[in-house]
Amino acid sequence: MIHIASPELSGNEKLYVNECLDSxxxxxxxxxxxxxxxxxxxxxxxxxxxxxNNGTTALHLVLAALGIGPGDEVVxxxxxxxxTANAVRYCGAEPVFVDVEPDTMNMDPRLFxxxxxxxxxxxxxxxxxxxPADMVAIAAIAELHGIAVIEDSAEAHGAEINGGxxxxxxxxxxxxxxxxxxxxxxxxxxxxxxxxxxxxxxRLLRGQGMDLERRYWFTDVGYNYRMTNIAAxxxxxxLERFDESLARRDQIAKQYDALLSGNARLALPESRPEVxxxxxxxxxxxxxxxxxxxxxxxxxxxSEGIETRPVFHPLHHLPPYLQPDASFPVAERLGASGISLPxxxxxxxxxxxxxxxxxxxxxxx
Length: 365
Ligand SMILES: *Cc1c(COP(=O)(O)O)cnc(C)c1O
Fold this sequence. Notes:
- The chain is an alpha/beta fold.
- The protein contains 12 helices and 14 strands.
- A 7-stranded mixed β-sheet has the order 1-9-8-5-4-2-3, with helices on both faces.
- Strand 4, helix 6 and strand 5 (148-152) form a beta-alpha-beta unit.
- Helix 2 packs parallel to helix 8, helix 3 runs parallel beside helix 4 (83-90) and helix 9 (242-260) packs parallel to helix 12 (349-364).
- The longest helix is centred in the last third of the chain and has 19 residues, at 242-260.
- The radius of gyration is 20 Å and the shape is globular.
- The two termini are 23 Å apart.
- Pyridoxal-5'-phosphate binds at residues 54-56, 80-81, 83-84, 126, 152, 154-155, 176, 178, 189.
């Protein structure tokens, strides 16, 4: 089977995890937590990083620290992983969906502006599949209206806009380190920010609301969203090969581009000129393909030993967020005709050629 994603753990991961086991520091204290937070903040060009137990809690932690709650609205793209909207719901606030741009699959800034109401407290642009959202336009609109910008960069570690890395824009950025992401800790996440007060507030809420200076004095109803030292040990080892792995992912995308660009039915991933896209999942759309045909394509490829996955279902089609009468035409088209291809460091050139042959063959018949 050629898997769609697979973690690559060939560096110091085992050495560092063994250090946790040998030292007995296996819980959420230990040197790897602080080392990983420092190294990750530096890698993003941010002042602070707060490690969490997954990317969903990272998103929730920012919203909770900002005091977002019932009656508030948070604008999110309708095409994203469901965690982006769930984090808003955890606060009792309302996610307000907007459609995406066809080339990047990311939030359309003009539709964000049109969705603003007196209740809008925050906006969460998502860097889908590794292409950063239009943070320049979104930040300018948000600033005019006094809206907090929280970037969801769970799929875009290392991506850049005008030479600056994601994690350094907006008020805060949330990351995931799930096993299929560009950097992994098994399960894990982080928030980066340049705002010292917000960073302290998130540290307090992450640790059950315990005062950072006074042990067992709880000032708030907080959460246990802490990362373990073991997870941070894996993350630190992953960061040591960060640039290398981004470069390898670029090569994989180049090979896909070369082998698929001749197929007129396929729209391949694009990059805006000011952007460095990172290739989390190489995702194509097939012109004229219906959702049923796409799902059949996934089954056919699986029978040839190739694991692929559909582009996210637009959130307004899913039971928790159902809006049967709403129309988000771009997300609906991308969600029906899009398919993500295997993208990970374990792929050989042969594997990629096999995927491309199978895909082209299936589309010809
Ligand atoms: C993976 C992901 C998350 C959440 O990450 P978990 O670590 O699985 O909780 C959030 N948003 C997006 C866009 C993601 O892809």
